[in-house]
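INFO batch 0412 | record 1 of 1 | parsing
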Amino acid sequence: MRSATTVVPVAALRFPVASGAGLTHRGLVRDRNEDAILTDPTGRLWAVADGMGGLGHGDVASDIVIDSLETIDDEDAPAQALRARLTDANQIMRARASEPGMGEMGATVVAAIVAGAQVQIAWIGDSRAYLLRGGRLRLITRDHTLVQDLVDRGELSAEAAENHPESHIITRAVGGDDLLELEQLTLPVTEGDRLLLCSDGLPRCVYEPAIAGILTAAVAPADACRDLIRAALEAGAPDNVSVIVVDIRES
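INFO prediction complete | emitting tokens
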């Protein structure tokens, strides 16, 4: 006779979930908005693309990036999917640039996929990702700019970099070369974290302490987006401004 056994059920793994909002504005100087954003009602996929107007057709470039990212499926592995879709966007952009009447084009991008207790972030150029945790704001991307390269080599201080006259010069972009120089990282996230994705139009006119204060004070992501855009406009908003705020909360 078999002895009785007791089976103890194993609790299902519970991961935090993400929810957020996004806003984009042409600013107070530019004739048109060449930024584009991607927000996901499921909380998984988020992106900000900033078309490089100086190269021409910046709005077309940013739309190509977002259209490519939108094809990512929920079942796709985050890191590989982001690289594959942005590589596709790079190839599409290079092909479009060779068409009559088009010419060189490019876009910067920061994209994030929230999966389980991690977020996979991919970026190229100077669109940024920040993490607010415990009231402390941390920049988690590194700008691909001429000035940042000078800072990394110790030839320029971080303070001097903020107002450097060549701070707008990008060293990498989608569409900039046949080989996409994408940077990626995996970041553990926990309940209470707040993520910010933004185009460079935000940090160029709203300094990080002010950004941290707005993100900390806002109750919901939509409130934070509205207040960040308002702060940029009050500071003159010489460029397009796009923001996405994502909350990591209890499942």
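INFO post-check: Residues 17-249 form a domain with the Phosphatase 2c; domain 1 fold (CATH 3.60.40.10).
INFO record closed
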